[in-house]
Amino acid sequence: MSLAFIVGLALTTLPALASSSNTPTIGNGDCWRGGTPFTCRVTWTGVNTFIYFRAIDQYSAAEPGWTSPVTAAVAAWNSAPGPQFYSFTPHSNDTWIYIVAAQTGQHGLTSSMVGLTWNCDRSGYCTDLNQAMDIYWSNVYLNQSTLNGQAAAYVQNTAAHESGHAMGLYHNSSDSSSVMWPYETTVPGPDANDIGTYPGCSSSGAGIDCIYGFGDG
Ligand SMILES: [Zn+2]
């Protein structure tokens, strides 16, 4: 299969490599840096602190067979290097990623998509486009219409990929082993480029380390 994932995205020129000294601060949140998207979180205190994402199960009642691959996708992000904690277990400082079973025709899903992520700000505005915003929570829609009948490895790849969007990551169109490669693969979770700075935070790099700056700058 070579079905497309989400989200539109014209990569734009990103600002120079950030440092802790130029971490912008917004009301009721903190941002690692400007650009698209702002990845501000009301519970995140900024660079060199951990960031907690909580996966919310809204898929297993409809798709019990997805439990194993989706759980594995969450675990892959959680065990990867970087500041991100990602778990179904609540944490006092978590922000929520709803993982939802949906179908073609719902929430913008088309028959060529296996998943689609909508990021939402604190006002309730949500978008499936990568744009500057204060991401407050996210809805990850996994497409039953296209994923049904696919091997678990594809479901895991889709859940891991869409979770990356919910964390604020872009597509990586230069590394087919990246979980943020724009087409469905069997890559099970993030690779070094999804976590790191390749090809540089100032030259379109959009891995976790460029987004959240942990141990960098
Ligand atoms: Zn995508």
Protein described:
The chain has 217 residues and is of the alpha/beta class. The chain has a single domain, classed as Collagenase (Catalytic Domain) (3-Layer(aba) Sandwich), CATH 3.40.390.10. The chain has five helices and eight strands, in the order E-E-E-H-E-E-E-E-E-H-H-H-H. A six-stranded mixed β-sheet has the order 4-3-5-8-6-7. A two-stranded antiparallel ribbon has the order 1-2. Strand 1 (25-26) and strand 2 form a beta hairpin. Helix 1 (67-79) packs across helix 3. The longest helix is centred in the last third of the chain and has 15 residues, at 152-166. The protein is globular and about 40 Å long. Residues 6-29 have low confidence and may be disordered. The structure holds zinc ion. Residues 5-7, 161, 165, 171, 182 line the site of zinc ion.
